[in-house]
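Q: Convert this sequence to structure tokens.
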Amino acid sequence: MADPRFDATRPATGGPEVPRDVVLPRLYRPAEIAAALGCSVWWVKDRARRRLIPFTYVGGAYRFTADHFAEIIRAHEEAPARKPKRSKPVAPPEPKAFASQRPEPTSPAVRLQARPPRRLLKAQYGRAA
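A:
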């Protein structure tokens, strides 16, 4: 007869007994999810940290179930682009006016004058003692 202290359904730490008919879900690591998606582990962890993908946080680590993985794939699906059906022809846009086509201003332009360089202004006053 088997020793009850070494029962396979009871964890070694003396925790609660796990019924034999309960099937626990497999938990995948971020590296496994990243390999399946073809992306980096950093991307998976970053998306989980920012709560953009579903995850389970067990023992200070991100873990993913098969349902989480399927939901991640569904969340990042892109539908094919459909061309909208046009009922009537669309007129081409009007050409934009270029700078050379602008009307001339009515008032004459003010001519700007350059200021003298600062080094010339300082020499004008001499040096301070």
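The mean pLDDT is 79.
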